[in-house]
Amino acid sequence: MAGSKFRPDSGLTTRMVLTMVLLFVVYVLFVVGLVAAGLNIWLVLVLVAAFAAFSYFSSDKIAMFAMGAKEVSPQQAPDLHAVVDRLCAMADMSKPRVGIADTDVPNAFATGHSEKSAVICVTTGLVRRLEGPELEAVIAHELSHIAHRDVMVMTIAGFLGIVAGFLTQAGLRFAMFSGMAGGRGNNNGPAPAVVALLVVLVSAVAWALSFLLTRALSRYRELAADRAAAYLTGRPSMLSSALSKITGDMARIPTRDLRQAEPFNAFFFAPALSEKGFSFSQLIATHPPVQQRVSRLAEISRQLGQGH
Q: Which positions does UniProt annotate for Zn(2+) binding (predicted)?
């Protein structure tokens, strides 16, 4: 967001540009691959464009609906709005919409494809567990995602994975149906089952590449948001404390609730996983290790001359 007082991060900007360029290349190869597999080019373009438009313009509504979150007014949540108002004034940025999700999973996220559609959402579990300064630090972290525009980039980057995943599943079902029906191609083309399997192969490769690219960006953007929030509030120890509380309490949340929230891990302040989940390979992790985030915040505390 132009003019924001959140510290700019050239590393994040470089990674966002690189990710978008690489995803564009993957997107072009994806379309070419589907056409080469035998699909009608106009069908491919219309399908991809439809998914892209829906994902881009409805990202905030989809996220809020999936999390069971509702937008709240200053009258409904005066304390929460007061925190957001204060931080937006400090950061010199426009205030996003504010939402609350009624779930015990302690977390927060920001979403939206533009400044006007941006929304920041916290869960009731988060508000209940954190002290005022800790909650303020988490909200500052989420606001920095909006200010840095990485929420928009993640939204755009994620749509290719959605399209590729859909086509992979559809292609597998079609291939199974064609095989069971004994479908054969005519003299001018391959059998439908062969075309379907080629679509599956192309889609799977595109999905894997987009998955790895967005996960790499996701890990870095969390470190950038930690840094920006710590410098804005001047209290990195509060963000570190909130992070420790949230990740520590994840082990106490029912597995069913964690699984419901898990699809949104890339947008959460902390991944909805129990402690054993943090041993996953860093190649596919949505967030950097908690120890790394806490260590970075401790270094910022030393730079600011604070005790940690």
A: 141, 145, 222
